[in-house]
Each structure stands twice: as structure tokens, then as C-alpha cells.
TrEMBL record:
Residues 1-165 form the Reverse transcriptase domain. Residues 423-450 are annotated as: Disordered. Coiled coil: none annotated. This is Reverse transcriptase domain-containing protein. It holds the Pfam family HTH_animal. InterPro entries: HTH_animal, RT_dom.
Length: 450
């Protein structure tokens, strides 16, 4: 038993190799697309050449290989690996008796005297992609998360395997995650141990599972219940779409349950705001404030407490240029002697609610210093976020028509929040007045005593 591992596969997959291998298997690819070969190769080439990033104010371009994290990289690497395996098998006089691949890991059964020869054949197929080799020891060879074990009868059995440096950590039971995610992680671990361990007895498997889950703070009674309950049947209907919702204990599970009963085509994927990513400073350069896109912004009025709420899918500075252009046009017309009641200026006031405020109140907004109040990667959510901020900002000068498309449910919830805020504000003012009156009375009593 031999395991071959490609060294840094993604970053060593070159564009000439990808182009060559795509052409060689084009007969299979053309069945899945309506694009012709020339355009297909042009798109692949463009995607591979578009890998760049900014670090400390400098832009870097990846000159070779596919980018780590790119959704295209695994597909291209898989095509190149298949080509290498095919060429290596044809180059060997005696091909391997058995070969399996998982991304960049290969498992082979070959004669022990030909291990070095086969390794050299694989390393000759591509000058950029090299392989390391691991040979079985005492009839055992780790491959992925399995331990392959040869028996004396010429058969292979398997056992669940973890590296010696493995910490054994999985999702902790006390972590801030929905209970169904914790149960899903534990159930998946149980199924993997039971499926991959063909050499252990059921009691040995259960003992291993208990030890691993207990080290991650799963209660023993819960572990025993999961070990003895039958596997749930596969659900025939799966949601057609998923939406991400922040996990709130008590609320999010209720929403999931209601949707599962009434709208089974929509699934809820729970997410957390507190992630490990927030503990570490990102290595990427932050996007400059005025270059951010998909944002909801606020512009304050210079002459009163009013403000304008808007949104933009483009860069913030581009939207500010548009606002500033309208303001400059207004000032230019006023400088030409036109009064505020002139039809041209009245027509200009219809452009945006901000311009309407500028014309009617003769005020000006601080367009050069906008404030980003919200952002979202999904552009379809921006109008909803904008309406929410308009309704929750008492000083907003936006028109009523800007929130006409708001759902009645959202409007009711926002109105309730505003009522609670106003009630809280009145309570705070009442408490402050009561405190001030108490201090005044005490001061008068002290003065009288003196």
C-alpha cells in the first residue's frame, strides 16, 4: 500500500497545463455547456489571470498557479490530476493494481519493488507538480482519516484515524451555537467512526465515541441517547433555498420550526456574529471608507438636526459625487438670480428628498462627510435595510414614499421598537427630573440648616 501526495497542488497548476488538459477532455465538457471551445478557454484563462490582492498599499498579482480559496481552483486541479494519473499509468509497464484519488491524495496498490519507479514516473508527468510518497509500515498506512490495515488473508480493513498531533477538538457543547448544529456535528462524528472502523467491535467503537465527545463537554446521557437511537430517515424534500439568520436562542429555533411547517422550500442556516475571525487582525488592507459599496449611508444637515438616509450599490464616493452635482447645480442657478420658487429649481427639488429639503428649507447638507450606518453583501437586501433605517431615524427628511414598499410585519415591529424607545426616553427624562428635584430639595434643606 502506497500513498502519494501532490506538493502544493493548487499553486503549481499552471495555465498551459490547464489549457492542454481542457482541450483533451473537451468532448466530455461540451455535453455540459453551450459555450464553444475558444470562448471556454478564454474564460478559463481570464479567471486564472485575475488573481490579485492588495497588501500594505501595494497590489500583487499571482503569476503562476490557481488562487487558494477560488471556487475554480479545485475544478482545474482535478482536471490536471486526472491527466497526470492517466499519463503515469500509460507510462508504467505494469500499471498499479488499484488506484484511488481524493483531490491531491492518491492511494495505490503496487509491488513493493516498484515503489520508487512509480514515484519517479508520476514526478516526470509535470515539471511543476511533484509528489511525496508514504509506504505502509507493518501492514498499516494512514490515508485521509482512515487507517488502512492489511490482514493475513489478503484483505484490507480500515479504522478511524487521527494524526498524533490532532487536538481532538470538535464543536464544543457549551459553544454559542444552535443545539441542532452541535447534535449534527456529534452525529456526523458517530457515523464516521462507525463507517470507517471495520476492525473494531461495536463496544470498542462506542467507547472511542464516548471518549471523544466527553472531551468536548457533551453530556454522557446525550451521548448514550445518540449512540442507541436509530439513524433518522432521509428527508425526501429538501429546501430549494437557504437564508442565513443570526442565532438568537429561543427566537431562531422558533422561526426555523415555523418555516419548516409552513414554507418547507425555504431553509434557515444559523450564523454567529462572534467568530474567531474577530479575534485576529486581518492581513488584507481595509477598503477605504469612501470606496466601500453596498452600503446604507446618512448625510447630516448643516443647518438643522435633520439627516438624509440613502443607499448605493456603487462606491460611496460615486454616490456622493451625484449628490454634490445636484447641490452645485442648485447653487449655480441661485447665483444666476433664480428664486427658490422658480420652476427650474422646483424641478430640481424633485430629484431626491435631500434636494427637496435644500429647496424648501434653504438648508445645505454635509455631503463631504457621509456616515455609513449599514452594509450588506447581498444587494437585494439594501432597500429593506434603507427603509428600516429611515423608519428608525426620527430626524430623517426622506419622503414617505421611500418606505411604501416596507412589509406590514416589519413596519409593525419597527413601530413597536420606536414606541419602546420613546417610552424609555420619557422614563429617563422623568428620572433625571426627579433626581434634579431631589438634589435641589437637599440643597435647600442644607442651606436652611446652615
Amino acid at each position: 500500500m502506497v500513498s502519494l501526495d501532490a506538493v502544493s497542488l493548487f499553486t503549481n497548476v499552471t495555465k498551459p497545463s490547464v489549457i492542454h488538459d481542457v482541450i483533451m477532455i473537451w468532448d466530455k465538457i461540451r455535453e455540459k455547456t453551450k459555450i464553444n471551445l475558444d470562448l471556454f478557454l478564454e474564460l478559463v484563462s481570464f479567471c486564472m489571470d485575475a488573481s490579485f490582492f492588495c497588501f500594505r498599499g501595494k497590489f500583487f498579482h499571482q503569476r503562476s498557479g490557481t488562487a487558494m480559496g477560488s471556487p475554480l481552483s479545485p475544478v482545474l486541479a482535478d482536471i490536471v490530476m486526472d491527466s497526470i494519473i492517466s499519463r503515469a499509468i500509460n507510462a508504467a509497464n505494469i500499471p498499479p493494481q488499484f488506484i484511488r484519488k481524493y483531490v491531491d491524495d492518491l492511494f495505490l496498490l503496487i509491488h513493493k519493488d516498484r515503489v520508487q519507479e512509480v514515484l519517479e514516473i508520476f514526478n516526470l508527468q509535470d515539471e511543476n507538480i511533484k509528489f511525496t510518497c508514504e509506504v505502509e509500515v507493518d501492514g498499516k498506512l494512514p490515508y485521509l482519516d482512515m487507517l488502512m490495515i492489511q490482514t493475513g488473508e489478503g484483505r484490507i480493513k480500515t479504522d478511524w484515524y487521527s494524526k498524533p498531533i490532532s487536538s481532538g477538538r470538535i464543536l464544543n457543547f457549551f459553544s454559542f451555537h444552535p443545539i441542532h448544529q452541535k447534535l449534527g456535528v456529534a452525529t456526523n462524528f458517530i457515523n464516521r467512526v462507525r463507517t470507517l472502523s471495520t476492525i473494531r467491535t461495536e463496544e470498542e467503537k462506542n467507547q472511542l465515541i464516548r471518549c471523544q465527545l466527553k472531551s468536548n463537554d457533551y453530556p454522557l446521557h446525550l451521548i448514550n441517547r445518540m449512540l442507541h437511537q436509530p439513524r433518522p430517515p432521509e428527508v425526501a424534500e429538501t429546501p430549494n433555498m437557504y437564508r442565513s439568520v443570526v442565532h438568537i436562542p429561543g427566537l431562531t429555533p422558533t422561526i426555523r420550526r415555523i418555516l419548516r411547517q409552513n414554507v418547507p422550500s425555504v431553509g434557515i442556516a444559523c450564523s454567529n456574529n462572534n467568530t474567531v475571525k474577530q479575534l485576529y487582525k486581518t492581513a488584507k488592507d481595509p477598503v477605504p471608507y469612501m470606496q466601500k459599496s453596498n452600503v446604507v449611508y446618512k448625510i447630516a444637515c448643516r443647518d438643522c438636526s435633520g439627516c438624509y438616509i440613502g443607499m448605493t450599490k456603487n462606491q460611496l464616493r460615486t454616490r456622493m459625487y451625484g449628490h454634490q452635482t445636484l447641490v452645485n447645480t442648485l447653487d449655480r442657478k441661485l447665483s444666476a438670480g433664480l428664486p427658490y420658487c422658480d420652476p427650474e429649481i422646483q424641478l430640481l427639488s424633485q430629484k431626491t428628498a435631500m434636494m427637496e429639503h435644500c429647496v424648501q428649507q434653504q438648508h445645505r447638507f454635509d455631503v463631504g462627510n457621509p456616515t455609513i450606518v449599514d452594509c450588506c453583501f447581498k444587494t437585494q437586501a439594501l432597500p429593506v435595510l434603507e427603509m428600516c433605517h429611515i423608519l428608525t431615524t426620527p430626524q430623517a427628511v426622506n419622503r414617505r414614499t421611500d418606505t411604501a414598499d416596507m412589509s406590514a410585519t416589519y413596519s409593525f415591529l419597527i413601530a413597536s421598537v420606536n414606541d419602546l424607545r420613546r417610552e424609555s426616553g420619557r422614563t429617563d427624562r422623568s428620572n433625571n427630573q426627579h433626581t434634579d428635584a431631589t438634589h435641589t430639595t437637599q440643597h435647600r434643606l442644607e442651606t436652611t440648616d446652615q
